[in-house]
Amino acid sequence: MATLTIDRVRKRYHHQEVLKGIDLDLNDGEFLVLLGPSGCGKSTLLNLIAGLDEITDGEIRIDGRVVNGVHPKDRDIAMVFQSYALYPTMSVARNIGFGLEMRKVPKAEREAAVRKVAALLQIEHLLERKPAQLSGGQRQRVAMGRALVRDPKVFLFDEPLSNLDARLRIDMRTEIKKLHQRLGSTIVYVTHDQIEAMTLATRIAIMKEGVVQQFAPPQEIYERPANMYVAGFVGSPPMNFLPAVVAVEKDRLGLFVKCEAHGAWSDVFLPLPPQVPVQLGNGLAEHVGREVVLGLRPEHITRAGSDLASGQVVVEASVGVLEPTGADTLAYIGLGGQDTVARVKPADAPRTGETASFALDLGSASLFEPKSGARI
Amino acid sequence: MSSSLSALPRTHTPGARALRIGLYLMLALFALYYITPLLVLVATAFKTPDEIRTGSLLSLPLAPTLDAWRTAWNQACIGADCRGLAPYFWNSVAIAVPGVLLSTALGALNGFALTKFRFRGANVVFGLMLFGSFLPFQLVLLPMAQTLGFLGMAGTTQGLVLVHVVYGLAFTTLFFRNYYVSLPDELVKAAIIDGAGFVQIFTRIILPMSPPIIVVTVIWQFTQIWNDFLFGASFAAGGAQPITVALNNLVNTTTGVKQYNVDMAGALIAGLPTLIVYVLAGRYFIRGLTAGSVKG
Ligand SMILES: Nc1ncnc2c1ncn2[C@@H]1O[C@H](COP(=O)(O)OP(=O)(O)OP(=O)(O)O)[C@@H](O)[C@H]1O
Ligand SMILES: [Mg+2]
User: Fold this and answer.
1) Which atom of ligand 1 lies at the shortest distance from residue A37's CA?
2) Which one, of B223, B236, B239, lies nearest residue B272 by Cα?
3) How many whole angstroms separate alpha carbon B224 and alpha carbon B287?
4) Which of A207, A285, A312, B155 has the fewest CB atoms within 10 Å, measured from its CB?
């Protein structure tokens, strides 16, 4: 149980800078998920926190203590690896107890601790087995047990679920969440699975090429992405990006967006709701006449009903391909000069080829600078 | 693999059959070619001198006798010393056992340090060691002799052990390094976080995973050291010579009638230990050599 501060941390390998100044600050008991594509430096950052690799520049503090030069075993951290890294020649019990054994904890005390953790993870019946005699999910539990038994200040998880099949992954995800709620420990968790990130994190740090793009709670990342990269990375299917031009018509601030209806493209004016986030309106005034990118998630494009919620605007658009997914049907419609994904109820799904009316929830939309991709 | 291939349906055209018969004939010929010298060796070692003179080279002994073996073991004259091969056999044991154990242990340690505790310049060190395994024996003779003289170990069994350990280190390091490279690094990282140090990680985690490569290395080194002639002839003085050198001297002793049966028995005695090692551990040898190549 501890705070963790990562302060302007850089990491260079030879002449390639892998981490370019990472700033993260975790409260006691937080669950941080590092999310990003392969090669963005997630494991590198985790190794730096663990002390398995040397920091080029910057500081890491655990509970206020600078740990830059501290040996991994003295940092009071525990790590669960993607490959689990169980010692193949030792029994499960010895695997779990090895850290205590190395710390010269008396045998009786050690065995009690191992039994307690085994009970917590429900692997008591496996204690005498060798890792090779375990299933993937059981190995995963043993790896967790090895971390839990020492009761460290910070837990580090490097893609602990990526070797499991889909079903088991969901189960273990829930268990990790329960475990976190029960123990209240500080956790740093690496994944490139956005669902894992959304479900587990108290805060997510989205990384790209060694830079943190956004560090915020999951809901905020989803609703108010800091830039187009984050917006496109989180959410499935991803957010639609529509080219638009800011304009004022009849004293109302709005966007011109290309729309295909009855076989022809035309510019349609979408008035922005007046009560829409003030900062959005304020910033926009100076963008009048300029191009922006309108970010709309598929669930914010639905079939227009009889009564519109505030912030919703109705447009007519022609319907292309339909993809039923069960709970929803995804409709590809002609909007923004491209195929845009709408998420509609299966009951009011339009037919391919027809032109139907859709409600766009501009109150939930994001606007981005086309060049930099930054949120406006 | 061979079993799965032979399980495939065969083609039964006459051409294919002829090809197959030809193949087996060829294989049988090769087998015969290789087995004949051994047959002559074994057969002769059990014959009496009379039978060797009168009978044919390839005939089996009519009345097998162990006389030649006894003579070769503890009566034959090597130079002026007529105690047989036995003392030299024990010399070889005294050279090979510590030589194998030391070079294997050091090779394991080197391989571990080179792969799992990488230090600055590890690649250069490994490159130089690899280079060492390409050096021909002859090249190291003179510097080795000087070194042994300098250390005051010239002509001693310990000196010969040192020579074999130094020369074998390049190979044992290469074997262990290539094996350890395929073990996941995360294992070591986990152990570091668990609080284990260099020695503990090596002895508690890495060594228990090493039996396959240890077997390979031990067989390789034992064969090398036991069969060595050049180093033994160059660096061992009279009584400290290994059995290979003694065998040579036995066979080349010019006094009296040539006792072919004793020579053959001596050769078999000298070759027996490596044969036994191969029979006992050969399976592991093949398995260890190819380990990792499949899993990749
Ligand atoms: N020891 C090293 N030497 C040189 N470059 C390295 C080293 N370790 C990692 N890198 C580089 O650093 C970058 C980040 O690697 P890292 O392993 O942190 O990625 P990651 O985000 O964990 O990716 P993944 O999701 O695939 O695990 C990569 O471009 C990688 O090539
Ligand atoms: Mg990684």
Assistant:
1) 25
2) B223
3) 20
4) A285
Give B131 to chain A, closest Cα distance, Å. 27
pTM: 0.82
B100 with B206, same domain?
yes
Q: Is residue B4 part of a domain?
A: no
Pair B140, B43 in one domain = no
List the structure tokens of A79.
Answer: 């790590």
Q: Is residue B81 part of a domain?
A: no
Regarding the beta carbon of A39 and ligand 1, being less than 6 Å apart is answered yes
Q: Are residues B95 and B142 in the same domain?
A: yes
Q: Is residue B287 part of a domain?
A: yes
B291 touching chain A per CB within 8 A: no
Closest CA to B76 of B272, B246, B268: B246
Q: In chain B, whose CA is at the least distance from the CA of A103? A: B195
Cα(A303)–Cα(A29) distance, integer angstroms? 42
Q: Evaluate whether residue B77 is within a structural domain.
A: no
Residue-wise pLDDT for A236-283, tens only, equals: 899 999 999 998 887 788 899 999 888 888 999 998 887 554 445 556
Are B103 and B179 members of one domain? yes
Per the structure, the complete domain to which residue B38 belongs is given by 14-65
| Domains identified in chain B, total number | 2
User: For the segment B37-92, what is each residue's pLDDT rounded down to a tens digit?
Assistant: 989 999 999 988 888 888 787 788 888 888 889 989 988 888 778 888 999 999 99
A window 262-291, beta carbon within 8 A of B = none
- Residue A158, beta-bridge partner list: A190
Would you tell me which residues 88-107 of chain A have a C-beta closer than 8 angstroms to some C-beta of chain B? 88-90, 98-99, 102-103
Decide if B192 and A89 are in contact by the 8 Å CB cutoff.
no
The reply to whether B136 and B260 lie within a common domain is yes
User: Can you list the domains of chain A with their CATH numbers?
Assistant: 4-233 (3.40.50.300), 240-368 (2.40.50.140)
Ligand 1 centroid–CA A210 distance in Å is 10
Facing residue for A85 by CB, picked from B190, B204, B209: B190
CA of A46 to the centre of ligand 2 (A): 9
Say whether the ipTM exceeds 0.85.
Answer: no
Interface test with A, best of B186, B193, B200, B210 (most A CBs within 10 A): B193
Of the candidates A78, A83, A88, the beta carbon closest to that of B193 is on: A78
pLDDT tens profile A74-94: 999 999 998 899 999 999 999
CATH code, B119: 1.10.3720.10
Phi–psi pair at B139, nearest 5 degrees: -65, -30
Q: CA nearest A367: which of A218, A204, A225?
A: A225
